[in-house]
Amino acid sequence: MALIEQQGYEATTIEQIAKAAGVSTATFFRHFPNKEDVLFADEDVSAAMMVNRVASRSDPSLDVAALAEPIAEFATELQDERTLRLTHLVMTNRSLEGRSLRMRLRWEREIARRLAAEAGVAEPTSQHALVAAISISCLTTALRFWDSDSHATGLAPLVRQMFQQAILLSSRHT
């Protein structure tokens, strides 16, 4: 990550990454198909952590408010210097937008599937998908505005604030 921060994503080569890690390029490719995958190496783990948080929530109702605390707890698990640096890279580098969007869509899909399973249905309905999408929007909005200034107060409070705003905005239009 330090190389990419110093040189930029596009300018950093796989050869440079491999050299900095003390491995050959062949070894790099045995573990990662491309340099983007180095940055998102924990994608599977993070998706599973989030779904586990949602699955263990105290309020099993199918609404956005019921997902606020599990998503905030997940954000607490994300809150470290690496995530802050990665978030900054993703938010400032157009080359990483596609991967970031795929990760967001995966989070939405996995939560919608979890909500559907809880309801005893095989496939998510539009309501499952919508609750998941709004919840992930709260998380990704918090990530977008989580910077060095708000880092001290934490990502989880920012996530909670985004949920409160989403709920308030939706109640104005009902």
Give the termini separation. Answer: 45 Å
Low-confidence stretches: none
Number of strands: 0
Helix content: over 70%
| H-E string | HHHHHHHHHHH
> What does the largest sheet look like?
none
* Beta-strand share of residues: under 5%
Q: What is the SS-derived class?
A: mainly alpha
Report the radius of gyration as a whole number of Å. 18 Å
Total helical elements: 11
The chain-level mean pLDDT equals 91
General form: elongated
How does this model look, in words?
The structure is a single chain. This protein is mainly α. Helix content is 75%, strand content 0%. The chain contains 11 helices and no strands. Helix 5 runs parallel beside helix 8, helix 6 packs across helix 9 and helix 6 runs antiparallel to helix 11. The longest helix is centred in the middle third of the chain and has 23 residues. The mean pLDDT is 91.
In short:
Helices cover 75% and strands 0% of the residues. The protein is built from eleven helices and no strands.
Q: Which terms would index this structure?
A:
single chain, 0% strand, 174 residues, mainly alpha
Explain the layout of strands and helices.
Layout: H1 2-7, H2 14-21, H3 25-31, H4 35-39, H5 43-55, H6 64-78, H7 81-92, H8 97-119, H9 126-145, H10 148-151, H11 155-172
Helix pairs in contact: 5-6, 5-8, 6-9, 6-11, 8-9, 9-11
